[in-house]
């Protein structure tokens, strides 16, 4: 849960920064998150969710718990790949070694 809180705070800070710039009359812009686990993955918030539900699946030791963990991984993994590809497409200076959701893997 700590990963999610930290990631959400980082994203909220970026959103506030973008809104301040828009209030000054600047055009809409997007910023790349660079702190915390965002140094390693494009979607640190999704990584936190996947880790949480993996833990839930392990603790529950039930088929529904494992299924919930698996579907969370599949849904957030697919969304994370889409987000990562969007970053690569729209930012020339986006870090090429950064993964989508899981450091050094996906």
UniProtKB/TrEMBL annotation:
Species this protein is from: Pseudocohnilembus persalinus (Ciliate)
Q: Name one GO cellular component term.
A: membrane
Its subcellular locations are: Membrane
Under the heading InterPro entries, the entry gives: 3-oxo-5_a-steroid_4-DH_C, SRD5A/TECR
Coiled coil regions in record: none
| A molecular function GO annotation | oxidoreductase activity, acting on the CH-CH group of donors
Q: Which GO terms describe its biological process?
A: lipid metabolic process
Protein's name in the database:
3-oxo-5-alpha-steroid 4-dehydrogenase C-terminal domain-containing protein
Query: Family, per the entry?
Result: Belongs to the steroid 5-alpha reductase family.
Annotated ranges, domain 3-oxo-5-alpha-steroid 4-dehydrogenase C-terminal: 1-106
Instruction: Tell me what topology the record assigns in the membrane.
Output: Multi-pass membrane protein
